[in-house]
Amino acid sequence: MAPDTPSDALPAPTPADPLVPQVAAGLAKLGLALRTHAWKDSAPRGLTPTQSQVLALLQASATPLRVSTVADGMAVTLPTASDAVKALVTKGLVTKTRAVDDGRAMALALTDAGREEAQRAASGPEFVTAVVDALSADEQAAFVRSLVKMVRTLQERGDIAPARLCVTCRFFRPWAHVDTERPHHCAFVDAPFGDRSLRLDCPEHETASAAAMAEQWRVFVSR
Ligand code: SF4
Predict the structure, then answer these.
(1) Rg (CA), the chain
(2) If phi over 0 gives left and psi between -120 and 50 gives alpha, with beta otherwise, what is residue 10?
(3) Nearest alpha carbon, ligand 1 atom 8
(4) Whole-prediction pTM value?
(5) Residue 56: which of 42, 37, 36 has the closest Cα?
(6) pLDDT class of 10 with cuts at 50, 70, 90
(7) Which ligand 1 atom lies nearest to the CA of residue 193?
(8) Please, which pLDDT band fits residue 198 given cuts at 50, 70 and 90?
(9) Helices first, then strands: H and E counts in the chain
(10) Domains delineated in the chain
(11) pLDDT tens, 155-171?
Protein backbone atom coordinates (compact mmCIF):
# COMPACT_ATOMS: atom_id res chain seq x y z
CA MET A 1 0.00 0.00 0.00
CA ALA A 2 1.28 3.49 -0.88
CA PRO A 3 2.30 5.71 2.05
CA ASP A 4 -0.33 8.33 3.07
CA THR A 5 1.96 11.17 4.09
CA PRO A 6 5.54 12.29 3.42
CA SER A 7 6.49 11.22 6.93
CA ASP A 8 5.31 7.68 6.11
CA ALA A 9 7.44 7.72 2.96
CA LEU A 10 10.55 9.25 4.56
CA PRO A 11 11.22 7.92 8.07
CA ALA A 12 13.02 10.47 10.24
CA PRO A 13 16.68 9.66 10.90
CA THR A 14 17.35 8.23 14.34
CA PRO A 15 20.59 8.39 16.35
CA ALA A 16 21.39 4.95 14.96
CA ASP A 17 20.98 6.34 11.45
CA PRO A 18 22.96 9.59 11.56
CA LEU A 19 22.42 10.72 7.98
CA VAL A 20 25.63 9.07 6.84
CA PRO A 21 24.09 7.34 3.81
CA GLN A 22 22.38 10.54 2.64
CA VAL A 23 25.53 12.63 3.05
CA ALA A 24 27.61 9.94 1.30
CA ALA A 25 25.13 9.81 -1.59
CA GLY A 26 25.12 13.62 -1.88
CA LEU A 27 28.92 13.78 -1.87
CA ALA A 28 29.07 11.04 -4.52
CA LYS A 29 26.71 13.07 -6.75
CA LEU A 30 28.79 16.22 -6.27
CA GLY A 31 31.96 14.24 -7.02
CA LEU A 32 30.43 12.86 -10.20
CA ALA A 33 29.32 16.33 -11.31
CA LEU A 34 32.79 17.75 -10.61
CA ARG A 35 34.50 14.97 -12.57
CA THR A 36 32.10 15.34 -15.50
CA HIS A 37 32.56 19.11 -15.63
CA ALA A 38 36.33 18.79 -15.19
CA TRP A 39 36.48 16.71 -18.38
CA LYS A 40 34.10 19.05 -20.22
CA ASP A 41 36.16 22.11 -19.21
CA SER A 42 39.58 20.60 -19.90
CA ALA A 43 38.96 18.64 -23.10
CA PRO A 44 38.33 21.62 -25.44
CA ARG A 45 41.67 23.07 -24.33
CA GLY A 46 43.47 19.80 -25.04
CA LEU A 47 44.09 19.09 -21.36
CA THR A 48 43.09 16.32 -19.00
CA PRO A 49 41.62 17.24 -15.59
CA THR A 50 44.90 16.09 -13.99
CA GLN A 51 46.92 18.40 -16.23
CA SER A 52 44.56 21.30 -15.37
CA GLN A 53 45.07 20.56 -11.68
CA VAL A 54 48.87 20.61 -12.09
CA LEU A 55 48.63 24.04 -13.72
CA ALA A 56 46.40 25.35 -10.93
CA LEU A 57 48.81 24.00 -8.30
CA LEU A 58 51.83 25.63 -9.95
CA GLN A 59 49.90 28.88 -10.25
CA ALA A 60 49.07 28.84 -6.54
CA SER A 61 52.67 28.25 -5.49
CA ALA A 62 55.01 31.19 -4.89
CA THR A 63 58.03 29.06 -5.85
CA PRO A 64 58.78 26.35 -8.47
CA LEU A 65 57.67 22.87 -7.35
CA ARG A 66 59.15 19.40 -7.58
CA VAL A 67 57.13 16.64 -9.24
CA SER A 68 56.88 14.87 -5.87
CA THR A 69 55.36 18.02 -4.31
CA VAL A 70 52.84 18.19 -7.14
CA ALA A 71 51.96 14.51 -6.60
CA ASP A 72 51.50 15.13 -2.85
CA GLY A 73 49.44 18.27 -3.42
CA MET A 74 47.07 16.43 -5.75
CA ALA A 75 47.04 13.21 -3.74
CA VAL A 76 48.05 11.18 -6.83
CA THR A 77 50.91 8.77 -7.40
CA LEU A 78 54.31 9.98 -8.60
CA PRO A 79 53.94 8.28 -12.04
CA THR A 80 50.53 9.96 -12.55
CA ALA A 81 51.98 13.39 -11.72
CA SER A 82 55.08 12.70 -13.87
CA ASP A 83 52.94 11.77 -16.90
CA ALA A 84 50.84 14.93 -16.54
CA VAL A 85 53.96 17.10 -16.19
CA LYS A 86 55.60 15.45 -19.20
CA ALA A 87 52.54 16.22 -21.34
CA LEU A 88 52.44 19.84 -20.11
CA VAL A 89 56.14 20.30 -20.93
CA THR A 90 55.49 18.94 -24.44
CA LYS A 91 52.60 21.42 -24.83
CA GLY A 92 54.87 24.30 -23.84
CA LEU A 93 52.87 25.12 -20.71
CA VAL A 94 55.45 24.06 -18.09
CA THR A 95 59.24 24.26 -17.92
CA LYS A 96 61.44 21.79 -16.11
CA THR A 97 64.83 23.08 -14.93
CA ARG A 98 67.42 22.12 -12.32
CA ALA A 99 66.34 23.21 -8.83
CA VAL A 100 68.56 26.01 -7.52
CA ASP A 101 68.79 24.43 -4.05
CA ASP A 102 69.48 20.88 -5.29
CA GLY A 103 71.21 20.22 -8.61
CA ARG A 104 69.90 16.65 -8.72
CA ALA A 105 66.22 17.70 -8.50
CA MET A 106 64.04 19.24 -11.20
CA ALA A 107 61.87 22.31 -10.55
CA LEU A 108 58.62 22.97 -12.41
CA ALA A 109 57.37 26.41 -13.39
CA LEU A 110 54.69 27.81 -15.69
CA THR A 111 55.48 29.38 -19.05
CA ASP A 112 53.50 32.50 -20.06
CA ALA A 113 51.07 30.27 -21.98
CA GLY A 114 50.87 27.97 -18.95
CA ARG A 115 50.02 30.92 -16.70
CA GLU A 116 47.10 31.85 -18.96
CA GLU A 117 45.80 28.28 -18.92
CA ALA A 118 46.30 28.07 -15.15
CA GLN A 119 44.20 31.17 -14.67
CA ARG A 120 41.34 29.42 -16.41
CA ALA A 121 41.93 26.15 -14.54
CA ALA A 122 42.03 27.91 -11.14
CA SER A 123 38.79 29.85 -11.66
CA GLY A 124 36.78 26.65 -11.14
CA PRO A 125 33.74 25.43 -12.96
CA GLU A 126 30.92 27.92 -13.28
CA PHE A 127 28.40 25.40 -11.99
CA VAL A 128 30.18 25.24 -8.61
CA THR A 129 29.72 28.99 -8.22
CA ALA A 130 26.04 28.64 -9.09
CA VAL A 131 25.58 25.79 -6.62
CA VAL A 132 27.29 27.64 -3.76
CA ASP A 133 25.40 30.85 -4.59
CA ALA A 134 22.17 28.92 -4.02
CA LEU A 135 23.10 28.60 -0.32
CA SER A 136 22.38 31.34 2.22
CA ALA A 137 25.31 33.15 3.87
CA ASP A 138 24.84 31.06 7.04
CA GLU A 139 24.68 27.84 5.03
CA GLN A 140 27.86 28.77 3.16
CA ALA A 141 29.68 29.42 6.45
CA ALA A 142 28.44 26.10 7.88
CA PHE A 143 29.49 24.35 4.68
CA VAL A 144 33.01 25.78 4.84
CA ARG A 145 33.25 24.65 8.46
CA SER A 146 32.09 21.15 7.49
CA LEU A 147 34.57 21.04 4.60
CA VAL A 148 37.41 22.01 6.95
CA LYS A 149 36.46 19.17 9.27
CA MET A 150 36.18 16.65 6.45
CA VAL A 151 39.45 17.67 4.82
CA ARG A 152 41.25 17.51 8.16
CA THR A 153 39.81 14.04 8.78
CA LEU A 154 40.98 12.88 5.33
CA GLN A 155 44.40 14.28 6.18
CA GLU A 156 44.49 12.57 9.58
CA ARG A 157 43.59 9.25 7.95
CA GLY A 158 46.39 9.68 5.41
CA ASP A 159 43.88 9.72 2.52
CA ILE A 160 45.15 13.05 1.16
CA ALA A 161 48.37 15.03 1.40
CA PRO A 162 48.47 17.70 4.15
CA ALA A 163 46.41 20.72 3.12
CA ARG A 164 47.15 24.30 4.14
CA LEU A 165 44.20 24.66 6.51
CA CYS A 166 43.72 27.37 9.13
CA VAL A 167 43.08 24.66 11.72
CA THR A 168 46.60 23.26 11.24
CA CYS A 169 48.33 26.64 11.00
CA ARG A 170 50.52 28.10 13.72
CA PHE A 171 48.88 31.50 13.21
CA PHE A 172 45.33 30.26 13.92
CA ARG A 173 43.62 31.34 17.17
CA PRO A 174 40.11 29.80 17.27
CA TRP A 175 37.38 31.63 19.22
CA ALA A 176 39.75 34.41 20.26
CA HIS A 177 37.08 37.13 19.97
CA VAL A 178 33.58 37.68 21.35
CA ASP A 179 32.39 38.99 17.96
CA THR A 180 30.17 36.15 16.71
CA GLU A 181 30.68 37.25 13.09
CA ARG A 182 34.48 37.13 13.36
CA PRO A 183 35.39 34.99 16.37
CA HIS A 184 38.73 33.58 15.12
CA HIS A 185 42.06 35.35 14.79
CA CYS A 186 44.84 35.07 12.22
CA ALA A 187 48.12 36.09 13.85
CA PHE A 188 49.80 36.33 10.44
CA VAL A 189 47.73 39.34 9.39
CA ASP A 190 46.77 40.12 13.00
CA ALA A 191 43.05 40.28 12.22
CA PRO A 192 39.81 38.59 13.30
CA PHE A 193 37.82 36.47 10.85
CA GLY A 194 34.76 34.21 10.74
CA ASP A 195 33.96 30.70 9.58
CA ARG A 196 33.24 32.03 6.08
CA SER A 197 36.92 32.94 5.75
CA LEU A 198 38.40 29.69 7.07
CA ARG A 199 41.07 28.78 4.51
CA LEU A 200 41.54 25.36 2.95
CA ASP A 201 44.64 26.29 0.93
CA CYS A 202 46.32 29.38 2.37
CA PRO A 203 49.69 30.39 0.87
CA GLU A 204 50.73 31.95 4.21
CA HIS A 205 50.04 28.73 6.12
CA GLU A 206 52.79 27.46 8.42
CA THR A 207 52.25 24.13 10.10
CA ALA A 208 51.76 24.31 13.87
CA SER A 209 53.53 21.92 16.23
CA ALA A 210 51.62 18.69 16.91
CA ALA A 211 50.74 19.84 20.44
CA ALA A 212 49.57 23.30 19.29
CA MET A 213 47.57 21.75 16.44
CA ALA A 214 45.81 19.34 18.79
CA GLU A 215 44.97 22.13 21.22
CA GLN A 216 43.62 24.53 18.61
CA TRP A 217 41.52 21.72 17.12
CA ARG A 218 40.10 20.94 20.58
CA VAL A 219 39.17 24.60 21.01
CA PHE A 220 37.85 24.98 17.45
CA VAL A 221 35.39 22.07 17.73
CA SER A 222 34.37 22.91 21.31
CA ARG A 223 31.54 25.22 20.10
S1 SF4 B 1 48.00 32.39 7.86
FE2 SF4 B 1 46.41 31.57 6.50
S3 SF4 B 1 46.09 29.46 7.23
FE4 SF4 B 1 47.17 30.58 8.85
S5 SF4 B 1 45.53 31.30 10.22
FE6 SF4 B 1 46.04 32.95 8.77
S7 SF4 B 1 44.54 32.69 7.10
FE8 SF4 B 1 44.57 30.78 8.26
Answers:
(1) 21
(2) beta
(3) 166
(4) 0.70
(5) 42
(6) low
(7) 7
(8) very high
(9) 9, 5
(10) 45-122 (1.10.10.10), 129-220 (no CATH)
(11) 888 877 777 899 999 99
70 HSE (CA, 13 A, CB side): 31
Q: What's the gap in Å between 75 CA and the centre of ligand 1?
A: 22
Pocket perturbation via mutation, ligand 1, pick of 175, 205, 209 by most ligand atoms within 8 A of CB: 205
Nearest atom in ligand 1 to the alpha carbon of residue 197 is 7
Is the minimum distance from the CB of 169 to ligand 1 under 6 angstroms? yes
**What are the residues whose beta carbons fall under 8 Å from the beta carbon of 163, sequence distance 6 or more?**
151, 152, 155, 200, 201
pLDDT-based confidence at 121, cuts 50/70/90? Answer: low
- Cα–Cα distance measured from residue 102 to residue 121, given in angstroms and rounded to the nearest whole number: 30
C-beta of residue 167 within 8 angstroms of C-beta of residue 218:
no
Give residue 152 CA to ligand 1 midpoint distance, Å.
15
Determine the distance separating the centroid of ligand 1 and the alpha carbon of 190, expressed in angstroms.
Answer: 10
Neighbours of 75 (CB within 10 A): 13
